[in-house]
Amino acid sequence: MRLRTVLKPQRQTTEQICEQYHVEKELASRLRGANREERGKLYSTLYDELYERVPHHPQVKMKADPKARRRKVAAQMRCLSKFLSPEYSFLELGPGDCQLSFEVAKYVEKVYAIDVSERITKNLKQPGNFQLILSGGQSVNVPPRSVNVAYSNAFIEHLHPDDTLEVLQGIYNALIPGGIYICFTPHRFAGPCDVSRYFDNVATGLHLKEYTNTELYRILKSVGFSKVQSYPRIKGICVKFPIYVAIMVEYLINPLPHPVRRRIVMTPLLRNILAVRLIATK
Questions:
Q1: Element at 170 (helix H, strand E)
Q2: In whole angstroms, what is the distance from residue 18 CA to residue 121 CA?
Q3: Is 75 exposed, middle or buried (0-12, 13-18, 19+ CB in 10 A)?
């Protein structure tokens, strides 16, 4: 199998990417075909199986690269720090190695982190105000109205589309009145953004569904959020921006063929405007 020549593999050899692609497609197919009850068990076992079968997976390698982890955490903290306060509770969904949650724990009273697997976080020293909650991937099992700020980065796209509404409703219920949910996820027009980007035009790996601003806006509003804004990073600074601009641009370019649409989305200006980085207020 040949990789697209326009994309350069990073951190993995061509053989490793092909191996990850085949494993992810197999696991994703299993998850896509499962009913709700089966998915509740599959989410955790699939990711444990993924990291077992693909030891060179970028998530596993990131854990062994302290400098890369610090850079990633610092970039996210630049967008989050203005929303944190010592008396707040913070919730992260899909925390991966939990390094961001550990950093946030220095600035808030309580941190919850919800994930389907503890494999990445095993043997890590945890702050006293941090709690890892293992979930079946369909629930947000923290006390209702207990969270000031909820956050996810590269999480929503890993959910089965039939579970997304339920999870977002759970996030809404976990927030206090006036609480916010900050959601970063890859844009569907720029995808696929999982390992299948080297081979396919639509995500076929463990990105079970990639979204546009329009799609997520409608879902967030449907679960009850009163306000949804874009939160793009412009020249390294995260700023609030009216989401209607992104929605209008998506409407205009949606009919275009995938390759043309992808090139447009990846231009510097539109990449910032269209980035699916949202703040939803309860």
A1: helix 161-174
A2: 26
A3: middle
Cα(271)–Cα(40) distance, rounded to whole angstroms? 35
**Could you give the CA distance from residue 243 to residue 183 in angstroms, rounded to a whole number?**
13
Mean local confidence (pLDDT), 18-35: 94
Note the pLDDT tens digit of each residue in 113-154: 998 776 656 656 789 999 998 887 778 999 999 999 999 999
CA distance readout (Å), 185 to 144, 154, 181, 182: 25, 5, 13, 10
Q: What is the pLDDT of residue 33?
A: 93
Q: What angle do CA 84, 277, 206 make, to 5 degrees?
A: 110
Distance CA 82, CA 109 (A): 15
End-to-end CA distance of the chain: 47
CATH of 14-227, one of 3.50.50.60, 3.40.50.300, 3.20.20.70, 3.40.50.150: 3.40.50.150
